[in-house]
């Protein structure tokens, strides 16, 4: 079984080439706002997943030490989603809102695909 940190590392390795493609799309196409929105949303989505990993590790550590854990993890993830949407709506000439929302969900789509591939490979290995 993989740890959440290993999953996050695999997700980053999958998302960085996509971000590079988005940068190329931003630089060489006329759809600059769409690609800028995809970049913005993907970065905020990756930040959200990193927050989840960090909070999960802190929670596990506090359980091991027998302490109670107080966290604002969900509130911070909601706030970062709102911040990404606020940036996109406040600067519509720079960022496309639909691209931003799509980019925000992209790390979770990559996570889903990675988990499916992981489980299919491990089922074949049995």
What does this structure look like?
This protein is an all-alpha fold and 126 residues long. The chain has one domain (4-124). It is 83% helix and 0% strand. Helix 3 crosses helix 4. The longest helix has 33 residues, at 32-64. The radius of gyration is 17 Å and the shape is flat. The mean pLDDT is 90.
Primary descriptors:
126 residues, mainly alpha, transmembrane, membrane, ATP_synth_I, transmembrane helix
Summed up, the helix count is 4
Please outline the major beta sheet: none
Give me the Rg, rounded.
17 Å
What are the secondary-structure elements, in order, as H or E? Answer: HHHH
Low-confidence stretches: none
Number of strands: 0
Structural class of the secondary structure composition? mainly alpha
Structural domain tally? 1
Sequence-ordered SSE layout with sheet pairings:
Elements: H1 4-28, H2 32-64, H3 73-90, H4 97-124
Helix pairs in contact: 1-2, 1-4, 2-3, 2-4, 3-4
Q: In a nutshell, what does this entry contain?
A:
By secondary structure, this protein is an all-alpha fold. The chain has one domain.
């Amino acid at each position: 079984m993989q740890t959440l940190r290993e999953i996050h590392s695999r997700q980053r390795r999958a998302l960085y080439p996509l971000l590079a493609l988005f940068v190329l799309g931003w630089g060489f196409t006329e759809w600059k706002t769409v690609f800028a929105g995809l970049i913005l949303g993907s970065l905020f989505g990756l930040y959200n997943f990193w927050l989840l990993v960090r909070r999960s590790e802190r929670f596990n550590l506090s359980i091991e030490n027998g302490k109670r854990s107080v966290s604002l993890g969900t509130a911070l993830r909601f706030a970062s989603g709102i911040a990404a949407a606020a940036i996109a709506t406040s600067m519509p000439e720079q960022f496309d809102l639909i691209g931003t929302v799509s980019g925000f969900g992209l790390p979770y789509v990559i996570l889903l695909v990675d988990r499916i591939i992981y489980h299919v490979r491990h089922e074949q290995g049995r």
